[in-house]
Amino acid sequence: MSMIKQQDLIDSIADALQFISYYHPIDFIQAVHKAYNMEQNPAAKDAMAQILINSRLCALGHRPICQDTGIVTVFIEIGMEVQWQAELSVEAMINAGVRRAYTHPDNKLRASILSDPAGTRRNTGDNTPAVIHTRVVPGNTVDVRIAAKGGGSENKAKLVMLNPSDSILDWVVNTLPTMGAGWCPPGMLGIGIGGTAEKAMVLAKESLMDPIDIHELRERGPISRSEELRLEIMDGVNALGIGAQGLGGLTTVLDVKIKDYPTHAASLPVAMIPNCAATRHAHFTLRGEGPALQSAPDIDQWPDVSWEPGNAARHVDLDTVTAEDVRHWTPGETILLSGTMYTGRDAAHKRMTQMLQSGEPLPVDLTGKFIYYVGPVDPVGDEVVGPAGPTTATRMDKFTDYILEQTGLIGMIGKAERGPIAIEAIKRRGAVYLMAVGGAAYLVSKAIIAAKVVAFEDLGMEAIYAFTVKNMPVSVAVDSRGDSVHISGPALWKRKIEEQAIELI
């Protein structure tokens, strides 16, 4: 029998969440580096270089890998012989740890959790509550696996109720391209098979807590149908040519994890959940001997990777650029932005649209300006802004044509692809969409030299900021003629893989 103190669980939860906010799992970094070394598409290779550089910066600076510091998911197994010295419930203790981690003064994390999700969507302010899965098991320890899951990748989760005779491989390979690149590949795929609909989803999420070991599996060979399926899905998905950030390339997934459970004879539930380039998870066990704290990894385990935009990069002054200028930019071209841009996400776009439709003037003049889809982390110390990577651009697609038409906006910056209605709007209005690398938030923030909230302060991280940037690296993802690198890139690299039988990761 062991006695677990309330404070020990709270301290361990808080420590783990701070730890994973700035330390990638080493196995993940090694897998990205392997993919980086093998990559033949320069655009995808550059994106992975930025992810690796960002990861090292975060490990050294103890600042978040991504501005989306995630929704907390906890799998906790409580031994039947455990006794608690506690006044709070287990869920309340976990949430106390989350609260402490996300409000830590030296590394404040972004609060992204909203209560009343179908109504007022009010931010809880401290990223609570966590999503908690509890099991009571034999033993005298408390075992905890904890993750912080970004919304961009969580939003791409899929569930299907297949017929027992259907092919799981075919469903995954056919479904993954429909998910776009908003989940920030390269990452991991978690697959849950069996049980019921809700069980399959939990299995998929739980599988993502496991370390990357696909290469070891390939070397020793599979010993079960589940392991065979992992390799088949890995090969089938990477053959699609989607690549890092959806730009086309050899590596889309770094590993495929599968957990299964007995199911009804008439059923085959299958869930798929991707983990992004900000994969964050940790594991600890309480034995009644005090808190279980994470051990800092050796920074020398991070690869020494450099990235330079190159002499061909176009330098753009955001304070003087014109609609005519952007018409000369070409898909895939690297742009270095300097000057003033505004920020705005879903809530800001919705409010601006409502104001324009009501005949109200907007609080900012967007004529000839660029808007950056971002919800930054609060600054600490002498920072002007915390990590400030892009959010998934497709969430703004439904607003794009109206905002471009009504405001004179000429450009947008975000993560991943744009959908058909946004591409058509960009073409119609002669605008441009630029892509920043998802998973390189701290690196991006280094280019922001001033930041000020200028509108909608009540929206918190979704307020409109004015950012002053210097040489912020982006690339042209949709040009003024409507040509999208997220369509042409994967198509090209899928064809190359098919025709040249290129070795995949």
Q: Which range does the strand content fall in?
A: 15-25%
Mean pLDDT: 96
Shape: globular
- Identify the quaternary structure here: single chain
Overall number of domains: 3
- Spans of 5+ residues with little confidence (pLDDT < 50)? none
Q: Describe the biggest sheet?
A: 5 strands, mixed, barrel
Q: How many helices?
A: 15
Please state the structural category.
Answer: alpha/beta
Query: CATH homologous superfamily name of the largest domain?
Result: Fe-S hydro-lyase, tartrate dehydratase beta-type, catalytic domain
- What's the arrangement of strands in the largest beta sheet? 14-15-16-17-19
Gap from first CA to last CA: 47 Å
> What is the number of strand segments?
19
The CATH class assignment of the largest domain is Alpha Beta
Specify the CATH architecture of the largest domain. Answer: Alpha-Beta Barrel
What characteristics describe this protein?
505 residues, alpha/beta, 60s Ribosomal Protein L30, Chain: A, fumarase, 3 domains, five-stranded mixed β-barrel, 15 helices, 19 strands
Topology readout:
Layout: E1 2-5, H1 6-22, H2 26-38, H3 42-61, E2 71-79, E3 82-85, H4 90-102, E4 114-115, E5 122-123, E6 131-137, E7 142-149, H5 151-154, E8 158-162, H6 168-175, E9 187-194, H7 197-207, H8 214-220, H9 225-238, E10 253-261, E11 268-275, E12 281-286, E13 314-317, H10 323-326, E14 334-343, H11 346-357, E15 370-372, H12 397-407, E16 411-414, H13 420-429, E17 432-435, H14 441-445, E18 448-455, E19 464-478, H15 485-500
